Amino acid sequence: MTSTIQLTNIQSETVSKRGLPGFVFADNDIYQQEQDKIFARGWASIGCAQQLKKPGDILPVTIAGVSLIAVRNKNGEVGVFHNVCRHKAAPLVDAPCNKRTLVCPYHKWSFKLDGELMGAPRYYGRDNTPISAQDKADKGLIPVRFAIWWDIIFVNVSGDAQPFEDFIKPLDELLSGYPQHDIQMISATDYRGDVNWKLAVDNFLDGYHVPFVHSQACTVESVLEQEDLFLSEDIVGLRLANGASDKPAKTAKQLPHFAGLPAERQGTQQWFGIFPNTLFFVDPCWVQTIVVKPTGVTSTAETLSVYVTSEDAASDEYTEEQARLSDVLNEVNQQDIELLDKLQHTRTSKVADQGNLVQAWDQVNMSFHQMWLRKMQCQ
Prior knowledge:
Structural class: alpha+beta
Cofactor: Fe cation
Strand order of the largest sheet: 11-17-16-15-14-13-12
CATH architecture of the largest domain: Alpha-Beta Complex
Largest sheet: 7 strands, antiparallel
Number of strands: 17
Oligomer: single chain
Keywords: 2Fe-2S, Dioxygenase, Iron, Iron-sulfur, Metal-binding, Oxidoreductase
CATH superfamily of the largest domain: Naphthalene 1,2-dioxygenase Alpha Subunit, Chain A, domain 1
Number of helices: 11
Order of helices and strands: HHHEEEEEEEEHEEHEHHHEEHEEEEHH
Protein name: Aromatic ring-hydroxylating dioxygenase subunit alpha
Shape: globular
CATH topology of the largest domain: Naphthalene 1,2-dioxygenase Alpha Subunit, Chain A, domain 1
GO molecular function: dioxygenase activity
CATH class of the largest domain: Alpha Beta
Strand content: 25-35%
């Protein structure tokens, strides 16, 4: 039986009760279908703009099976391009780097950081005349549709998804009281796990496990106040109205809150899954993003970035608090990675299909599973 036939047999009602069947977390054919139906057609994240600290910084990524580069040009602007030379499609960059120009390792075609072709040696053969402006005009790097929101770089590889502003609008409106443009990255840490990407996303949206797996971060009593958030067909989340004030202190002294944050939000923690692969956590004093990057059907890379609320909060005055915050959040993520590597084996077994979602805790997770099913069953 092919994966396509298996997918059509998955019933939404069963998913509501038991979650997705185990085979979807381990089937390579399904993984390949996801590249087109989910990652190419939607708004997928690839990294964060503040990872590109200086003009010339370049971040290579692969999403939807496509090799891309995010580049900060000499004017400080971010652009996203296919990581493909316009001559014979050689990759331009293999690892994060800083360059004044992009030079193809194959035939030394060179490109400006804004994607424009600079030169192509001996383009006319024996005639050593530099390539003309006319011949350069249609040979620049191919741009990718992208948007930056809360410093996260989103791309739409297919180019035909809904406008990003419409896609993100429900969450943008919910967070309108937070000055997103003031946030400052204090750390970015890469992880790898032997796990299907969907299990990594599902875990982030599972508030039930937090006090048991991450007792240093949360108490059982605090998560009993958890509120489910269903914002759109692509965005779900959770809210703890007093999560920040109820949990153990992360730092010796308080990091500065978001400026102008309403009093009723000064203890509120909220975290969201932005389908398919963006995980986003907002605290009154810090922000965490996790970009989940599938690298195979049972392998996933992640980049966890931690932000404070302002330049003041990122100053040397709070160095100790920044380090402690980053350590705690990365400790939590490492605990999840270790758990997920084990879960990959058991969650893909036949017996896992007899699991039972819990009404009080698993509605957000179930909603994520239903999102996946709708997109994968769509022709």
